[in-house]
Structure formats: structure tokens, C-alpha cells
Amino acid sequence: MLSISNLHVGVDETPILSGIDLEVGPGEVHAIMGPNGSGKSTLAGALAGREGYETTEGSVTYDGEDLLAMAPEERAARGLFLAFQYPVEIPGVSNIYLLKSAVNAVRKHRGEEELDAMDLVSFIRDKMRLTGMDDQLLYRSVNEDFSGGEKKRNEMLQMAVLEPRLAILDETDSGLDIDALRTVADAVNQLRDGNRSFILITHYQRLLDYVVPDQVHVLYDGKIAKSGDANLPKELERTGYAWLTGSGEAEPESAAQEQ
Amino acid sequence: MAETTEPVSHYQQLYHDAESTLPGAGIDWVAERRRAAMARFAALGFPGARNEEWKYTSLRPIEKRDFALPKRAGHGLGAPDLAPYLFDEPATHRLVFVDGAFDADLSRIGQLPEGVTVQPLSTALEAGMESLAGHLGRYADPEGTPFVALNTALMSDGVFLHVPAGSTLEWPVHLLFVASEAIDGIGVHYRNVFVAGEGARITAIESFLGLGEATYWTNAVTEASAAQGAEIEVYKLQEEAPSAYHLATFEGYQGADSSVTHHNISLDGRLVRNDVNTALDAEGAYVSLNGLYLGDVRQHVDNHTRIEHLQPGCVSRELYKGILDGRSRGVFNGKVVVQPQAQQTDSDQQNRNLLLSRGAEVDPKPELEIFADDVSATHGATVGQLDEDALFFLRSRGLSQHQARNLLIFGFANEIIEAVKIEPIRARLEDRLVQRLPQSETEED
């Protein structure tokens, strides 16, 4: 479904990704780990179509088509979803309005009939059960004054209503307490259906205690340094990333704790 | 004294010719106030570029035009023409003015409680109403600015609202000032006087509406007095014709524990200048000024506000937001004056601007003058563009570039719209805003 081949991406003329190869099949869950600055978020941004990420070499095909040629909204309409590492606040726009607009924009793009207001609300309410989100958050401005955990649940809610075919979670687990982490993991597990694929970008092993990946890749210096099965994270837990850098110690994990 | 310039002599001539036919010509105090105001205007003249208050706003196009006074001719507008602009829910008293004059057929004044006055100003002037005499020109002082002076000299109509102590005007009063197709070359001088006695309440909607393509000048003045514990809420909605000049002054005067809320929504017009001022002249008074101004193509919109804290323990809140596109220009000048005796003043002023194109410009200027020492006064002014991260986020959720832009612009304006408490006005405003958004998509729900 997704085929990344020799992908080189630069930001502001600084090369960040220098030759990524990755195959993600239908229904597969891939975890991408690696130290800060290894290029994990750049990969996520490039796949979702963030501006300013320049592909200098290589290609990405999605369902046999050139993903990189598509506008971000077209990628979304074709079932690609990115859960943001830092969810964006949109003052003055209610969460429910955003969700309705998103669902109908995508439906329209797919040539499906748009849902009316009532159907939309019940559809969204239904998906909310997945995330354990408080109903009143629907009527607040998008992510404004949300706690860190609420913001991440909100990303999961957007994922659930958009019913993507490929979801990329960019460090959705960072900064979460154990309950919120479980919610994220539950959402992913419930949406796993044999066809839907996931790329979980994470700094830590703990998300992978709840979501068992098919493959795990370690990104370092813009390349995949190592790939393995679900046991790889446990190995990393023991060794850290120090073996990658060749120097003594890896940077402390706590430095990445945000929010 | 400035020498009498050509535009000034034009208006002197207009006044001279119309003196005997202006409303209230036969009432001594009315005639005297007009005469004094005209003399004042002649002395002041049109403000030039060296006048700090008009630094960014050139009035040359108005000066050059020599606008005439409204003619007493039929306008040909009927109820169906105005239907889209009326607010029938909640029930309102409605006073419609077309091209400077009250139109009784298009208006509807409902049952009024004992002692309450809701009247066209022309009628109140003709009758020389004593309750009007005590207020007209007291808050909007012709001595102050040239346009209040000119308005006082030439005022043709408007509304006199008087709710005495303890009374409540349950329905909002909708003042609809319509410019028809036939108004080309005309200057209209509307004057409104709102007086809320002790504990009384007034809600007024002032809509300025241009239906054609005519070039005309609206010079409107509203003065509002809120006595102790009174509440006045004014919604000013400016939707003039695209080539219209719109100058408007609001002057509030507030007693103890009174509350004035002014919403200033400016959507259209070629050159727009709003002066919104209030004096907090007794303890515990509260004022809230909300503003939203949209500019596109070559529109120029200037908002000047002045809040004067004269007594202790008053609260002022101000939020003005501008959205400027095309080659439009915005000006915000927010003055807050805290006089020495106004201790425990609590004041906050915010001005936020969104520039949607490279050609658009805005000059925000907060001006705090604080002469008391025990005061909380905060202010902020920002000028920014649409947030790229937010745009990408919305597009990653399937919205087109277009929809994403419009949603962000809408969200920016929404803070002001949400402060509108009357639901049909809010809905109408949302509607208008969506229409006015850059190349907005009509299929949006």
C-alpha cells in the first residue's frame, strides 16, 4: 500500500532524510523509533505533505500512485491520516464544526454523499466512545485550553471519524500519562482491522507494550539503521541508542518529554 | 481660526439655504444649537493630515465632493426590498430611514411602556421635546469635533430613545438607515439620542445599509447616556455601498454602576471612520467595546476609540479585530485615559489584525494615558497572517486550501461574533461574514 524508496528530504536546504526505504502492506503496523533529530517527524511531515519539506531524491507511492505529487487534502481524502505531535489550536472554531467539515470534505472528495447535520453528530458521537473524550469538548474551540492528554485524544477522535486507510501517529504517546496512553493504544487496536495500516512514530517502548507492531524500524541520521520484529524495542530498552552513535551514551530520554 | 476653505463655505451655504426647513426650525433652542454648531464647523473646517487624530485617514475625497442635503423625493423602496435586512425575531421596534428621512410605512413601533419614548428625531425636534433638549449635544459636544458640529447643524433625522428610571424597553430597537440607488451625491446627517434613566435598559441595533452603487456620505452621530445602574447595548452594523463614505461617532456617558456595551461591525464602504468614545463618570461603571472591521480592495477603515476613566473603580474592556485583504488599509487607535482620581481602574484593551494579502496594511496604536497610581491597565496589539501550521493541519484533515483559509478567518472573527447576544443578529453576521470572506465557497454550511 505504501512504498517508500530511497527517500531524501531536506528542510531549508538541510538534508534530513537521506535514503529511506520502507514497505507498508495493508493491515500492517510499523513502529519507527530513534533518537531525537533522527528524522522521524520529518518522515511523518513529508508523508502528510507539510510545506517546506523538499524531496531531493527517491519516491513514495501510495496505492501505486505518486503520493508526493498530491496536495495534503488529497492525501487525506485518499485515506492518509497524520496524528500531530503538537496538535494545533484553532481559536473560534468548534471541534464539532471541524469534525463535520473534515468528514464531509473527505466524503465529497471521494464522491460520496455528504452527511446532514444530524447524521454527522450521531456518527461523531459514536466514534467518541473510542476515545473516552468528554462530550463538552466537542463544543469547545479546537484544542484551545485542552490538556495534553485531551489534545491527543482529540487527534484519535479525528482519526476515528476520518476512517483512514493509513494512519501515521507522530509521537502521539509522548507526554501522556498511563491512562491517556492506554486510550491511544485502545483506539489504534480497535481500528486495526486487517486492512488499515499504521505507522507509529515513537520515542519509547511503552506504547508498543499495548500495540504490538508487525515491524519495528530504528531511524538514525536520516536512514533506517535497523529493522526487526516486535522484540526489537525490548532490545533497545536495554542498549539505548548508544550503539548507533558509536559514542558512549545516548541522549537522555527525559529530554524528549514535552508538554 | 482656519480660513474659510471652499468645502466649508459649501456647507455654510447648504445650511443657510436649508435653515428654515430643517426639522425643529421653529423651535428656538433647536435653531440656536444648529446655528452655533455651524459656526463651530466653519471655525474647525475639515481636519487635515497634520491633525494627529486624522493622521492616517485623508478626507480629501469627501471634501472634494460637495455633498448636497437629502432631497424630499420618493425612493421607491418597498417592504420586500428590505425584508432580508430586518430582524423580526426577537420582536423589535423598527424605525426605517431612507436617504435621510424617516419612512413611517416601512417602520413599526410596538406597544411602549408608560413614559417611554421611541421616536424619529425629526418629530422630537419639531415638537421641541424638553426631554430631548436636556440631552441633545450634551455628550456629543459640537465643540469637540468638526463632524459632530456639522451633524448638529444639519441633522435631518434619527431616533430619540428615552427610557425613564425603572422602565425597561423589552424589545430591541432596530434603526435601519438605508441608502437607495437615488442617493448619489447626497450627504446624510443622522443623529441618535439614547437616554436610559436609573436602572433602565436599552438595546439598539443601528444598521447602515447601502442598496446601490451610489457615492454618498453618511455622517452619523449617536449619543448615549446611561444613568445609575442603567444598561445600554448598541449593535452597529455597517454595510454601506461599496463607494460610500461613512463617518460615525458614538459618545457614551455613564453613571454609577451603569453598563454600556458597543459592538462595532464594519463590513463595507469605501472610506470608513468610526469614533467610539465613552466617559465613565461615576464609580462602578462598566464599558465593553467590541469591534470587527473587514477591508478589501482599496477600502480604508479607521477606528478611533477613547475610554475616559474619570472616577474610581470603573472597568473597561475592549477588543477590536481587523481582517484586511486586497490593498485595504486599517487603522486602530485606542485611547484609554485614567484621570488622577480614577483609582482602582481596571482596564484591558486588545487589538488584533489579520492581514490576508501583501498589499493590505494596518496601523494599530494603543494609547494609554494614566494619571492615577493604583490601576490595572493592560493592552496588546498584534498584526499577523494566517497560521501556516493551522492551514496545514486543516488540509491534512481533508479541507481544501480555500476552506481551510476561510475557516481560520472565520475563527478569528468569531470571538467578536460570539459576543453578540441576539441570536438572529449573530446568525446574520455569520452569514454576511461567510459571504464576505475572500472568494468564499457558497456550498459551505
Keywords:
A: alpha/beta; Rossmann fold; six-stranded mixed β-sheet; four-stranded antiparallel β-sheet; 9 helices; globular; disordered C terminus; B: 445 residues; alpha/beta; ten-stranded mixed β-sheet
Explain this structure.
The complex is a heterodimer of chains A (259) and B (445). Chain A has 259 residues and is of the alpha/beta class. Chain A has a domain at 2-87 and 164-256: Rossmann fold (3-Layer(aba) Sandwich). Helix content of chain A is 35%, strand content 27%. Chain A contains nine helices and twelve strands. Chain A has helices spanning 40-48, 72-77, 95-109, 117-131, 148-162, 178-191, 206-210, 232-239, 242-245, and strands at residues 2-11, 14-24, 29-33, 53-62, 65-66, 80-83, 90-94, 141-142, 166-170, 197-201, 215-220, 223-228. In chain A, the strands form three sheets. A six-stranded mixed beta sheet of chain A has the order 6-9-10-3-11-12, with helices on both faces. Chain A has a four-stranded antiparallel beta sheet with strand order 2-1-4-5. Chain A is globular. Chain A starts with a strand and ends in a 14-residue tail after the last helix. Chain B contains ten helices and 20 strands. Chain B has 445 residues and is α/β, with parallel strands linked by helices. Residues 440-445 of chain B have low confidence and may be disordered. Chain B is globular, with a radius of gyration of 21 Å. In chain B, a hairpin with a 2-residue loop joins strand 1 and strand 2. Chain B folds into two domains: 6-282, no CATH class; 388-445, no CATH class. Helices cover 22% and strands 36% of the residues of chain B. Classes of the chains: A alpha/beta (259), B alpha/beta (445). Chain A binds chain B through residues 48-51, 71-73, 75-77, 81-82, 84, 87-93, 97-98, 100-102, 104-106, 109, 117, 141, 158, 162, and chain B through 387-390, 392-401, 403-404, 407-408, 410-415, 418, 445.
